[in-house]
User: Fold NERD domain-containing protein from Schinkia azotoformans LMG 9581.
Amino acid sequence: MKILKPRFVSPELKLLRFLHSRMGFPIDDLRRFENLEKGFKGEQQFDIWSEDILIDGLILNDLLFEVNNTVFQIDSVLISQGTLFQFEVKNYEGDYYLEGDKWFTLSGSTIRNPLHQLERSETMLKQLLQNNGYNMHIESYLIFINPNFHLYNAPINPSIIFPTQLTRFMDKLNRTPSKLNGGHSKLAETLVSKQTFQSPYKRLPNYDYNRLEKGICCPHCRTFVDVTLKCKCGFEEAPSAAILRSIEEFRWLFPDEKITTNRIYEWCKGNKSIRTIRRILANNFEYEGYGKPGHYIVPIEFNRAVR
Assistant:
């Protein structure tokens, strides 16, 4: 098994992490942030679990497509010789129950039926494949990765894989006959190339520079560090690494703002001297202009913010 497209923190989650350290969130935005964070942790657990897939296959993670003006997202696919496996990963925790095709938490709150999401994604994926000349068999599975999840009144549905079934499901996958050729690699390349893009900035809470708390955040626990750059959680880093990471945060949050010594000094809340900030900027970026009106140009490989 080969991972052709690895999983990364989504741009939206990355931006929300930066913002959450520096401002309070309205309740709806906080709930979305927490759901994205929990979902990503579940996907990471799935990635660890999928390392035991032994067949000749290709895995692609975090795919976003648009078909017939409809955008849909797929957590992971596994391309084998004769089957494309689609996986929808859920990190639900606690007790849930079913009434008909409606899903509820034990407290009675309604949640979207994840089977409907799985069926919709499969339908759209089939259309995408057909549009590009492929007619491959698709098997779709809803993976509940959290061992602390339980569903009352659960139906007998082979598309649902509960935590206690993960080992047996892995055995089933590893019994799948599979020998890939160039056509399978071409299919994987086609899927990667057909991805669409959605701006991560559209669903963020409202924010502006003046209202955000300034300082250097620990990359692990996201609390602010003092001038020693030693966090209470035990993490410590060199000044250059901390400043460059803070510049990256600034670039993500304000992609259209110019990088200047004074701006970064203020963004870091004077944690390091202006002289230190200027030296780090000069060593890593090109300066454009003359005197105070000038600013630093961010290299393409450094500027990973998606507009």
Notes: Residues 2-193 form one domain. The mean pLDDT is 94.
